[in-house]
Amino acid sequence: FWTDDKFAKEVQRKGDLLMKRLDGIADKYNKDLVRSKGRGMMCGLEFATGELAKTVTEYAFDRKLVIETSGSGDQVVKCLMALVIKAEDLMAGLDILEEATDKAIKEMRDKADKAVA
To answer: What is the pTM of this model?
Structure first.
């Protein structure tokens, strides 16, 4: 670990990958609804409400991804993984997070459409 910078570079690479994927998820939606935040491997998605973030975590949990919320209103879905996580496991988890986000936002919009109609 301390003999070279291989581990540090690998952590940096995974952090960059994580942020790129979170940016991609957030960029599909209005910034008032969801945005990515954080640095390195301490990142997450900040949602407009804690209720929306909770729905995302519930959908993720249904797919066997344990992920938590934080923030003053529990509005941030935070990614906390081991620094030694394999890149393919990281990507699989992010796939689940993206699907859960898409599903939760679609459900929220469907409810809003029904309320207007």
So the answer is: 0.93
